[in-house]
Amino acid sequence: MATVTDLTFPASTGRPMRAALALPAGAGRRPAVIVIHEIFGLNDDIRRIAGRVADLGYVALAPDLFDTGGARPLCVLRTFMTLRRGEGPAFADLEAARAFLAARPDVDAAHTGVVGFCLGGSFALLWATKAPLGAAGVFYGEVPKTADRLRGVCPVVAGYGGRDRIFASQGERLERLLAEIGAEHDVRLYPEAGHSFMSHHTGAMAWIMSWGPMAVGNDPAAEADSWTRLERFFRAHLA
């Protein structure tokens, strides 16, 4: 079983940024995967997901991109603005996270990937066009409108929920654009799943969102198949 601990690492500004580090069992140098959170930031569910990635044999780091100093709402807004521009502080912080992992003696820095969910899936896709990554997992994230924005992307494995009336079309677009530029990919639309089908959200907000247009909620079948595909894809490209 993986061990998951909270720590800080030097962000792009040099200030400490919160993160969860998940280490696989056993010794030796391992490939690394950066896990990018949803709109809720670094929470217990992302820690669980980081641990699941580590159980596949990777050193996983989940940075809290909202931990930039200052009021939380402003940090969230700045992160979204960075995503809209396709460049800026949050991407620099992801690079800082990659550098932090690369400096660890238990990491094989030549084999690094990324996986993200919703907001994190959007970041993972765009970052995968800029950074020297071996593979990107993109789950129910926003997709650029033109293929030019995706040129240079590393191999992509992705999943979207067919009942998600906001993001299902993004999955269809991702399949089309990646095929247009000849990028290796495995994109799947799960007809019975909604948004956040790999997450285990609880509480009143999760219940309310399950009735919205995105049909937010865990789907065990889509989740299990996505983990199987992610494991197979990462083993092929991060070995």
Topology:
Layout lengths: L2 E8 L5 E8 L6 E7 L7 H12 L3 E5 L8 H14 L3 H14 L4 E11 L1 H9 L7 E5 L16 E6 L6 H14 L3 E6 L13 H7 L9 H18 L2
Parallel strand pairs: 3-4, 3-5, 5-6, 6-7, 7-8
Antiparallel strand pairs: 1-2, 2-4
Helix-strand sequence: EEEHEHHEHEEHEHH
Q: Portion of residues in helices?
A: 25-40%
Task: Give the strand line-up of the largest sheet.
Answer: 1-2-4-3-5-6-7-8
Class by SSE composition: alpha/beta
Low-pLDDT regions: none
CA gyration radius, whole angstroms: 16 Å
Kindly describe this structure:
With 239 residues, this protein is an alpha/beta fold. It has 7 helices and 8 strands, in the order E-E-E-H-E-H-H-E-H-E-E-H-E-H-H. The chain has helices at residues 44-55, 72-85, 89-102, 119-127, 168-181, 204-210, 220-237, and strands at 3-10, 16-23, 30-36, 59-63, 107-117, 135-139, 156-161, 185-190. The protein has an 8-stranded mixed sheet, sandwiched between helices. A hairpin with a 5-residue loop joins strand 1 and strand 2. It is globular and about 45 Å long. It starts with a strand and ends with a helix. The mean pLDDT is 95.
